[in-house]
Structures are given as structure tokens and as C-alpha cells.
Amino acid sequence: MNQTERNLLMLLEKPYEDVSRPRGRDRVGYDLTTAKPLRVTTRVSGPVNWVTVPERPDLTVQSLGRATTIRKGGVFSFFVQQHRRAARDLCQLFMKSKDAEDLMQIAAWCKDRVNEGLFNYAFCFTIVHRKDLRSMRLPTVVEMFPNKFVPMEALTKAQVEVNRAPLDQKEPVIIDHGPDFATTTIKAEHRVSYWREDYGLNSHHWHWHLVFPIDMGVNRDRKGELFFFMHSQMLARYDMERLSVGLNRVVKYDNWRAPIDDGYFSKLTVNNSGRAWGTRQDDTVMQDFRRNDFGLDFFTVAEMEQWRSRLLDAIHQGFMVNREGNRVPLSDDVTSGKRGIDILGDAFEADADLSVNSQFYGDLHNLLHVAISFSHDPDFAHKEEVGVMGESATAMRDPVFYRLHRFVDDVFQQYKLTLPPYSMDDLSLPGVVVERAGIRQGDQTDILVTGWSNREFEASRGIDFAAEMSVLLRLQHIDHLPFNYHIMVNNQTGADKQVTVRIFLAPRKNERGDDMSFMDQRLLWAEMDKFTVSLKSGSNHIERMSKDSSITNPNEFTFRDLEQGRSSDPGTPENAEFDFCGCGWPQHLLVPRGKPEGMAYQLFVMITDFEKDKVEQTASDRRCANGVSFCGILDGKYPDKRPMGFPFDRRPPPRVMDSELTKVADLARLDNILLHNITVRFTDEILQK
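-> C-alpha cells emitted (689 positions)
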């Protein structure tokens, strides 16, 4: 990064501190004539590298538009339309800046005037979407807001250790934090808290909604379909974790008048003041929203039920109704324009700019999040804070998130089941035979090993501990040993052929220990990888490393990573990693947990014709190297013409090769498909990688 980009980066540090407060390894401070005086501390010493921000008479409070309507210190929730409007006004101000230096001056002027979460969201949005900042990468949200990942009790203990440490101590204070803190073993749902509360999972959800925002004037290719597919894949992976620990698959939350069985107590705080997120007791009932403190109009459960009925009517009638009263057909079998799943996704999520009729189909997904997050205090009688379901960086910690999104996915699946099954022409690839497939992990074949790993982040980048020493978070998380896929393919076409390799994984047995039918297993198939390869005529050995998966983001950049930047050699592994843009499923969650005794899984390998899959792309300044299955291409079209989740997104054809199709194994009668059994074994130990 150049110096201006470093100055931009430092504005994301210590979000709750004054803009003049020194930040980063180089102790950068922003000198504004309107800034508050710098607080004096005896534990921080050394020169400050001041960045002079000149007076900007062109910037007034009016320049901020609705960005001042969210109180400082409170929660910024992208599920609330008024908050999205505030973010849009601030983003538009940032996006109008002439260059990086101008953006830095505007952002430094704005920082102390708006809500902290709003500022960081809008600033990160700008870095992601401005073409002149495409060389920049975002630091992990874990370091920007450690209070959203670690309980305040642990952060307070760290502050006590800092206060007791000698003034000249250089060694960092370390906060060890395991996966078990939000509940006890009394509750069955606690068995999967290690997954729900994983830092990478929640960071992914925050980053995905940053890249695919609603009501922000962003219309990326197949955005509505990606909303469906990414969340559907989350559920498939969550269900695999549940089966790994002896729980049933998640049950949808669709009776909004019935109590929510499981409560949730996050132990987190919304800011550095110690104000806790709202909590939900067991058997809480979602109620009408009647609060006047969140900038949101009152709404009722009955209104949401009406929106649900209209969406379901549209699915089963085969069309939606636009603002002019005209029918908009819903079909995925189109040669131009939007697929039905894309239209439905835009209306359900719901993006008022893209929905065919936002007034009629409503704001169902977002307001369900809001209603649940305020179910403990829907009328502000107790002046309680919003629950974690109201924020994208924390929502996935709550068990009800998955029940809600099982309902959301069920609506999308009802649409998918109205579509005709794929034909043999869609599914087969004449002349290409998958002869063998398997995995290799170290010296083991067809056995994947999972366990625990640790990752360190600097909490002192997000919280000012008033000390020279770093305060590190050492977070324990589920992980797996790296592995390779090995696939033997015979190209019998007599010529070289470019193909797409599609790899999925699903558990072999259901909750009762029985083999599953196609329809029972259909929603458990998790995409593991998708890539293009050129087959020579004859036998081909395809080897693919797990770290190159098309769904994953290999690493979370820390502030320290970004300060150190790239080396001078563009071919180094470090620079290759910088080509990853930050959006994508966490690499350490690629493989499900499995069981200590080993759990049976099936690997599904399918080869399809790249000529039918390819999408013509225009020239792009930046095509991120990672996460394309979940995140697409930043400046281009989604790089696969087929529907997302193909071939499991629809019901199967009734027969394959003149025989009835009841199980996925029946689909593997086709030469271009192979089903292979593997085992996933959980060690419950720190992995040696």
C-alpha cells in the first residue's frame, strides 16, 4: 500500500475512539481543526505521525444526509431499511470523492460525527466498490469489532492485565478463547455452538452482505439467486454438523405465533461501553414491533404473514405482479433476462431497488430478523438493546437464525420443485468417463481428519487498551488437515476437451442411520469445489488441492498483514494470497466435523461440458481468485451458466438409462458422474498442520 492507502486503512482501527487518537504500528493520528483534544495517557508514549486534514468548507452536517439519524454507540443494522438509507447517503458521499486522498479527508471529517458501525460499513463498502482502490484489502471484522466475537468479560480481564503490566513490557497480553461460552451442556443446541460462534463463519456472513448489499444501488449478476444459494449451502453444512454430533436436521421456523424453543444469551456487547446485546429466553413468542427508538415504522406479524402468502401464491401461480400490475413469469429455463430464482430472491431478501414490487411483496426476510431480534422487548418497555439476530456479524451465533433460514430456503425450494427435472442432455456428457475418484490426506486415502486449530487476532486494533503492548485474541476453531482430490477421467471423444469438474459432499446416513433417498439427501449436498480443466484424449489424472476450493477464502487479513503488504516479487505465495478479495466460505470450515469413530460421507464428482457452462466475460480490473461459487466475480458475470447448485437444485428425472432413479447412486449410472464413499474422523485434538 502507498501512504494514502495506509492512512485510509488506519481509519478502520479503534472505531469507538476519536479520530485524533494514534492508530497502528506507525501511530497515525488525524489532525483536524474541528477534532476533540487528544486524551492524555501515561501508558502510551512516542511520537505521533500526524496526518493533516485541511478544513473542508464544502463539508457540512447536511452533507451527511440521513447518516446522522443513527445514534453513536448504538447498533447499526443493515436489516433495517432506515439504517440502509443512512448507509447509502454516507456511501454516496464517500464514492463522490475525487481520489484516495480526497476520500481520506472526507472520511476523517465524518468519522466522529456518525455511528461507529455505520462508518465502518460505509467505508468498507467504498473500498470494495471503488475501482481506484481495487489494490486495497479489508482487515478482518474480528479486529475492527472484537466485542462482536469475544465476551466483554474476557476483554475486561485483558484490560486488568494491561494495567498491571510494567510500562516497558513488549510481550503481548493474550486472551485464550475456546469455542464454548454462550451456553451449557444442559442444552442440546450447545453441541454445535463451536460452529455457530466460529469467527470465520460470522465474518463471512458480514463480508458477504457487504459485497451483496440491498438498497444500495448495487445490481450484481444473479444477486437474488446468490442470496438463495449461499444461505442454502450454509444450511446444508449446518445440518452436516448437527448430524455429526447426534442432532436432527434443523426444523424451519414458520409458525410465527408459536414460541421459539431455544433462547440465546450471547455474552457479547454492542460497543466498548459494556452495553449487552438483547437476550431471548426459551419459549419467547415473536410479537408485533412497537418500538420508537430504532428509526423503524411499526409493523405486525400479520403483515409478514401476508407477504409470505403473496410470495407463495406467486410461486405456485408461476408469476409475480410488478408495480404496473403486469405479470412477471417465474422460470429458470430462460435464454435471456433474469431467471425466476433471481427475481424471487430479489423480492424476498428484499432489495427495494430490484424487487418487482416491494410495496406488495414487502420486506419479509429483513423484518423477520428484526422482529426476532426484538422479541424480548418489542415495545421498548424495558429499554433493552437489539438481539444478535439484528446484525449480520453476529446473527449466525443464534440457533434461531438457522430455523428462520430453513423457512426461507423452504420457500425457495417450493419454487425449485415447480421446475421440470433436468434432461439427460443436461446431465450427461457423451465420451467422457469418470473412472475413479478419491481423496488423499497425508498418507491416508479416503479419510479426512478434523480437529482444532488456533488463530490469533489483535484485539488492540479495535479496542484502545491505552498501552504500547498488543492484546491478542487466540481463538480456537474447528479445522481439518489439508487434502487433495484425485480423479481419473477417460476422454473418449478423440480430441482435447475443456470441461467443468463439480465436487459435492454429503453424509451417507440420515438421523436414523438409514441410507437416504435422492429427495431426502438432496438438500444436504454441499459444494466443495468447481473448476475448469482441459482433458487430453485418453486417460487423464486430475489432482486438485483442497486449499484451491472455489467456495473458500483462504485467510482473514489482519491489520498487521495489510501493513506489511506485498513483497516486491509478484510470484511469491504471499502475493498470491493478496489476490484473494476476502469474500468466501472460511477455509477451515470446508470439511464437516465428522465423528471420533468416523462418519460415512459420499463424494459426488460430475464432469460437465464447459461449452455449455461458460459465460462470456468483459475485461475486468479485478477478478478475485477465491470464493467465486458464493461470491461471483466482482466486476463480471457469475462464471457458470448453469443454475447454482446444479444438479441438486431440482427434483431428479424419474428414470436414468431405462431404470428408476430413487437414490443419488442411480444418477451415477451416467459415465460422467461418480459416487465415492469416504470417512470423516474427528480427533478432538489440536491439529499439527
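The radius of gyration is 25 Å.
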